[in-house]
Design goal:
Number of strands: 5
Largest sheet: 5 strands, mixed
CATH topology of the largest domain: Trna Endonuclease, Chain: A, domain 1
Number of domains: 3
Distance between the termini: 38 Å
Order of helices and strands: HHEEEHEHEHHHHHHHHHHHH
Radius of gyration: 24 Å
Shape: globular
Number of helices: 16
CATH class of the largest domain: Alpha Beta
Strand order of the largest sheet: 1-2-3-4-5
Length: 314
């Protein structure tokens, strides 16, 4: 299962999660977590932690979910190039392996990760981190975030996933941190049920009421019934009810999806510009599904709606 972007999202969410997921890495003061284009390489560094305090070291972070004999060499190469562009900063490296078994322990680099505060490299294993956290603090919100990542049984995930999502919603966390956790949970949950549309996934999590319970649906059905009764004809009544039900079903579902997607986009990206709101208001159901799926991995609104979307709408 795809995990890289979700892990980096959690690391960027706040120092509370950074400390847990890195096995104790602490940063004094604010920091940015960014992807950098490294000179000399044909790829970007997916995770660079840059504290605002120039005394604090920068960290080049790699998340590794499968065995790769070159991971240490690649990380050291990136560290050197980032350091070349930041000669006034200390640059260190961190590899987060999903499990100990995929660590190639390449020398001499592995030997430098001795756990000391001044070591140039740090190596941790996610499975061990989560197991220790579960034994020490079983109600920690991070365990709820990783629920769809760790649970293989989809039936169990479907039964208990909504409860884990609800716990995250109620978690006593700073708002940006909680929103980051909810975003990652939703992303992993949607990946596990990839055959479903975005609205179906969110309804499974209890984020959309059944169509028959929506206020819009009930109001439109009532309008259809009233029109039929006003005609005073059985045929008109039947047509009015059918028309109200059809409109209620179509409009109620689309409006419900749009409202939910607007709320999730606000959680992820903050206040929405007018051009986004206009698109959501005028969207078709298939567009809402596509945007909902795109949001899970997007880093900005233009990635969700397509590059040039803002310009085109103007």
């Amino acid at each position: 299962m795809k995990t890289d972007k979700q892990i980096y999202t959690l690391l960027a969410a706040g120092p509370e999660l950074l400390v847990v997921l890195t096995g104790g890495l602490r940063v004094n003061g604010p920091y940015r977590f960014e992807s950098l284009e490294v000179k000399g390489l044909e790829r970007r560094t997916d995770g660079v932690l840059r504290p605002e305090d120039p005394v604090e070291p920068m960290w080049v972070i790699e998340f590794q979910a499968q065995r790769d004999a070159r991971i240490y060499h690649r990380l050291v190469q990136k560290m050197a190039l980032v350091g070349e562009d930041n000669l006034d900063r200390t640059v260190r490296g961190l590899i987060i392996f999903t499990s100990k078994g995929i660590d190639p322990r390449s020398q001499p680099w592995f030997g430098t990760a001795d756990g000391s505060p001044q070591a140039p490299l740090r190596v941790i294993y996610l499975e061990a981190i989560l197991a220790e956290l579960e034994a020490r603090e079983p109600s920690h919100p991070l365990l709820a975030v990783f629920f769809p990542y760790r649970i293989e049984d989809r039936r169990l995930l479907q039964e208990q996933g909504p409860g884990a999502y609800s716990r995250l919603q109620r978690a006593d966390l700073p708002a940006p941190l909680r929103e980051g956790c909810l975003t990652v949970f939703t992303s992993w949950f949607a990946i596990r049920f990839g055959e479903l549309m975005f609205a179906e996934v969110m309804r499974m999590l209890g984020q959309m009421p059944p169509l028959e319970e929506t206020r819009t649906y009930k109001e439109l059905v009532a309008i259809g019934e009233a029109r039929g009764e006003a005609r005073g004809e059985a045929r008109g009544e039947a047509r009015g009810e059918a028309r109200g039900e059809a409109r209620g079903e179509a409009r109620g579902e689309i409006r419900g999806e749009a409202k939910l997607l607007r709320r999730l986009l606000q959680r992820r990206f903050g206040d929405l510009p007018d051009w986004v709101r206009e698109r959501l208001d005028a969207a078709r159901s298939e567009e809402l599904d596509a945007w909902g799926e795109a949001m899970l991995d997007a880093e900005g609104l233009e990635e969700v709606f397509g590059k040039g979307a803002q310009k085109d709408d103007r």
